[in-house]
Amino acid sequence: MTDKLKPLRDQIDAIDAQILSLLNQRAKVAQEVGHVKAETNAPVFRPEREAQVLRGVAERNPGPMGDTEAQTIFREIMSACRALEKRVTVAYLGPAGTFSEQAVYQQFGHAVEGMPCASIDEVFRATEAGTAEFGVVPVENSSEGAINRTLDLLLQTPLIISGEVAIAVHHSLMSKTGTMDGVTAICAHSQALAQCQVWLNEHFPHVERRAVASNAEAARLASLDPTVAAIASEIAGTQYNLGVVNSHIQDDPHNRTRFVIVGHLQPGPSGSDRTSLVLAVPNKAGAVYQLLAPLAKHGVSMTRFESRPARVGTWEYYFYVDIEGHVQNPAVTQALAELKSNAAFFKVLGSYPTSLN
Ligand SMILES: O=C(O)C(=O)C[C@]1(C(=O)O)C=C[C@@H](O)C=C1
Question: Where in the numbering of this chain does the Chorismate mutase domain appear (predicted)?
Answer without folding.
Answer: 1-89
